[in-house]
Amino acid sequence: MRVITIATDLEHPFLRRLLEPSCAAVGLELVVLEGRQRGFRPRDKRALLTDHLARHVPPDELVLFTDAYDTLLLRGEEYIRTAYAGFPQRVVFSAEPNSWPMGPVGLALHEDPPVGPYPYLNSGGFLGPAGDLLALCAAYPDPPSGRFPLLNRLRAHQVDTDRLHGTSDQYYWTLVQLLEPDTVGLDHGAVLFENFAPRVSNFCELNRWTDDFRTHGRQSASYRRERSRLLSRLRSPSGAAQVHFASALAKTVVLDLLDEGLLPSWLVGMVAR
What we know:
Blueprint: E1 2-7, H1 13-25, E2 30-34, H2 44-56, E3 62-66, E4 71-73, H3 77-85, E5 91-96, H4 104-109, E6 120-129, H5 130-139, H6 149-156, H7 161-165, H8 169-179, E7 184-186, E8 193-195, H9 204-216, H10 221-233, E9 242-244, H11 248-259, H12 265-268
Parallel strand pairs: 1-2, 1-3, 5-7, 8-9
Antiparallel strand pairs: 3-6, 4-9, 5-6
Helix pairs in contact: 2-5, 10-11
Pfam family, one: GT_PLOD
InterPro entries: GT_PLOD
Protein name: PLOD1-3-like GT domain-containing protein
């Protein structure tokens, strides 16, 4: 099994102080692929990853992809393989409480009621054989938005989701998963991946919180709210193999708590061994 991440900043504090030490603590070797081109975007991760898989990874080798700047690993290969065997699909993605980046449009693409507690795909963590990942990317070289009547109707009204969200890797994988549910599963119960993003009823709240934080920093109401929320949530250990602090606010809070010695033992133990 191989663990892979992609980074443009090899000295990012979350990568160096949390992700890398956590992988070492559970006996997993982390492969860091560097995105070197200028203006590297989230969708560029897919091209870099597929090139590496095609050149260096056997098709049947299990690959765990994890985001570089806001995740850490809590459990090793034996747990991951056992949990993965419980899914009927060959590829398993992390899931989260919110439909991002499409918001209500993304909700409307799901024909069935949401499966909780984490209903929607998150691309910050996924697991599957290298050959299966390559086959999916080859079958869908671009976001398959044209396969969705709703998105075609929106496009006719000058709302082009490819133009709005085409730089998002999560947008791409969300559409692929909806078309390939027998091949691509979601970890609704956080067995492998747990996403610590806050659940919101109004999608615009996330953007407002981010803008507030960018403007006022650690004095912002959004930072104080996220710090309080995470301190409360982190009292209970995660049962997953990977945890994901999926926002600028959340990863800032986690790094601050690390500096202040306030991370709980079940997390800090993974980076202090």
